[in-house]
Amino acid sequence: MIRFENVTKRYRGTKRPALSGVDFEVQRGEFVFLVGASGSGKSSCLQLILREESPTSGRVAVLGRDLKSIANRKVPYFRRSIGSVFQDFRLLPSKTVYQNVAFTLQVTGASRGFIQQAVPEALALVGLSGKEKRLPHELSGGEQQRVAIARAIVNRPQIVLADEPTGNLDPGTSVDIMQLLARINAGGTTVVMATHEAAFVDQMQRRVIELRDGEMVRDEVGGGYGDTSNVPRLEPEAIRGAAATAALQTVREVHRETEAAIAEPIPAPAPVEEQRTPAPPTVKPADDPRPPTHQITVPAIDVAELGVADRLGLAERDDEEVGPTS
Ligand code: ADP
Ligand code: MG
Fold first, then answer.
1. Residue 314 — pLDDT band, cuts 50, 70, 90?
2. What is the C-alpha radius of gyration for the chain, rounded to an integer number of angstroms?
3. How much is the pTM?
4. 65 lines ligand 1 (CB under 6 A)
5. CATH class of the 2-220 domain in this structure
6. Where along the chain do its domains lie?
7. pLDDT tens across 139-150, in order?
């Protein structure tokens, strides 16, 4: 679905390549974390996948196509199969929630009927029904990121790329966003997420590709974050109040909904019950270098249940990829 073949990326006027000899393949339906310190090349990888940048050498193939073979004028069309989410949300500030999500569909010439059906469904999936008329500044950060996620999935993309999507959010809200991305992935959409949130990576136990100074130093299935000693990190505040309750509520609800339906055993998920009480302000052993964490459960959810799976591209697909990778 996404293939990097010995990819090196050197930006004009820089001494050191941003990426060197990066080689990996992501299969359809995978959830992959791209981890590494700031400047290690995570965003560059995502930009290459979107064909916002081109490799200096090597090859990037996405959805079965060598990106070099896509003519410039066809790039916008190619990007419709990919939804993108960024740290800074990138919403249109003067457009409402509804308009932000509808906008992508309008510019791509979707029919009015499709838009009227797809937008409310995408907003329902991210839990924003009833907030269609709000402007971005009338929403919390977490809600703004949900709008961005709705916008990313409304066009039924096969791939969702998320570049530090929780980077501007408090820990409780970040859990919600992780949960949502896990849910979208559980419906069959391939998700690649760049992050340096070690706690989430550790808890999700998904594939981890680690970059260090542009080189791939690890590709591990079900890995944790790994050595965090080089990653500068702020101690997050202990979650409390509304954010904690909301995060907990989401985890509980999703857990309840899917308890019976868990297809894939998750390595040692902590029981949800443990989180009944939000962590008190940082009670932890003095020698524990880790920030307090917030437990995530990753259910194998039946998105079809929500009745929107097919429209949002979250259902199982049996159509072929665009063409041979050769
Ligand atoms: P990360 O997302 O892991 O922080 P980036 O991919 O943004 O890493 O950056 C990797 C390296 O490439 C850094 O040294 C950065 O300064 C450099 N870089 C990124 N984008 C550009 C650009 N457009 N021009 C020049 N250098 C860049
Ligand atoms: Mg980055």
1. very low
2. 19
3. 0.74
4. no
5. alpha beta
6. 2-220, 239-255+295-315
7. 999 999 999 999
Ligand 1 pocket test: pick from 4, 12, 43, 196 the residue with the most ligand atoms within 8 Å of its Cβ.
43
Q: Is the CB of 17 under 6 A from ligand 1?
A: no
In this structure, what token pair is assigned to residue 288?
């524990």
**How far apart are the two ends of the chain, measured CA to CA in Å?**
13
Ligand 1 proximity of 42 Cβ (cutoff 6 Å): yes
Residue nearest to atom 13 of ligand 1 (CA): 39
Q: In what order do the strands lie in the sheet with 215-220?
A: 82-86, 159-163, 190-195, 31-35, 207-212, 215-220
Partners of 32 in beta bridges: 192, 207
CA angle, 245 as apex, 242 and 250 as ends, to 5°?
125
User: What is the structure's pLDDT at 281?
Assistant: 46
**pLDDT band with cut points at 50, 70 and 90 for residue 295:** low
Ligand that comes closest to the CA of residue 37: 1
Q: If we measure between CA atoms, which residue out of 278, 279, 277, 271 comes closest to residue 296?
A: 271
What residues sit around ligand 2, an ion, with C-beta below 5 angstroms?
42-43
What mean pLDDT is predicted for residues 123-136? 97
Specify the residue for token string 């917030």.
294
Mutation probe of ligand 1 site: the residue of 8, 14, 164, 217 with most atoms within 8 A of C-beta: 14
Give the atom of ligand 1 at the shortest distance from the alpha carbon of 53.
23
Rounded CA-CA distance 226/218 in Å is: 9
292 vs 220, higher pLDDT: 220
